[in-house]
Amino acid sequence: MEVVYIDQVFGLNMLIDYLLLLCAARLTGESLRRLRFALAALLGGLYAALAVLPGGGFLTHPACKLASAVGMGLVAYGGSRRLLRLLLVFFGVAAAFGGGVLALQLLWDGGRPLDLPTVLLCWAGCYVFLSLVFHRTVRHGGGELAGAELELGGRRCRLTALVDTGNTLTDPATGRPVMVAEGERLRALFPTGESPEPGELRDPVSALERRRRSPCRWRLLPYRAVGVDRALLLAVRVDRARVGGEDYGPILVALSPTPVSDGGGYSALIGA
Predict the structure, then answer these.
(1) Which of 146, 168, 147, 165 is nearest to 156 (CA)?
(2) Nearest residue to 233 (alpha-carbon basis) of 180, 159, 168, 170
(3) Whose CA is closest to 243, among 153, 177, 168, 195?
(4) 246-249 and 143-152 strand pairing
(5) Side by side, which strands form the sheet with 246-249?
(6) What average pLDDT does this structure show over 260-267?
(7) What ranges in the chain are assigned the alpha helix state H?
(8) The pairing of beta strand 179-182 with beta strand 252-256
(9) Positive or negative, the Cα torsion across 184, 185, 189, 191?
(10) What distance in Å separates the CA atoms of residue 175 and residue 162, rounded to the nearest whole number?
């Protein structure tokens, strides 16, 4: 007779669900809302525990499993504009993880129990494999997420940038790429009280006039986009910008008054 410990079933499934939700978010560039991931994983662990209790066998039906997975996805990613994509990636990650567990069990004669080392090993292998697949797909599609660091007057700011080959915004004076970043994310670059407020960024001409003391730093940058025929952004020239492993040197950074990504996965854009 097989003995099942309900606390181990709950804890192990909660850990697995959390890692899978985290993996799907990282692969799609979604912002990591860890508290929501933990709550969704808690529900997943509770579902697994109820399924092994007497009378809970009906919960193992495929329809119940699908409903549970969708429920976890809604709790973890609800509100994102890329919800459908996140759910599909979550299902794909779960399937890849299940395949990894099965492959490991077949490698050992007599099978191998699903313990913590097996879970972590399978999750790591699944994450590495899918990261390589997504990395190639994203690069082929013309965009890649990378860490960025900006420096201005000895102050530094770190953020996530999308390196997009379709972004052709350049400095009219030098022809070099221009980074477009969310103004709210750049407060660390400026002394206290000198960071442009959101209202100022929506009126870049007035904002520039109030910064006449440092005209070499600040300027207006014209741009065009889908649905925008002609507009201006307030831009500042930083001392140095590093994106991924590449040093861009001193470049213009345009301050956007609105988010640059729909799901919060990145907060800056720059041309490749």
Answers:
(1) 147
(2) 180
(3) 177
(4) unpaired
(5) 218-225, 228-237, 252-256, 179-182, 268-271, 155-164, 143-152, 240-243, 246-249
(6) 72
(7) 6-28, 34-51, 62-77, 83-107, 116-140, 198-201, 204-209
(8) parallel
(9) positive
(10) 20
| DSSP classification of residue 196 | P
Tokens 């070499």 sit on residue: 216
Map tokens 């206290």 to a residue. 192
Nearest-CA neighbor of 235 among 270, 269, 200, 204? 204
CA dihedral 65, 66, 67, 71 (to 10 degrees): 100
Domain borders along the chain are 6-140, 143-271
Rounded Cα–Cα distance for residues 272 and 269 (Å)? 10
- pLDDT, tens digit, 9 for 90 and up, residues 51-94: 888 887 888 888 888 898 999 999 998 877 678 888 888 888 88
- Identity of residue 126: C
Query: Tens digits of per-residue pLDDT, 175-206?
Result: 888 999 998 889 889 888 778 887 888 888 88
Q: Which two tokens stand for residue 156?
A: 């530094």
Dihedral angle sign, alpha carbons of residues 162, 238, 180, 87: positive
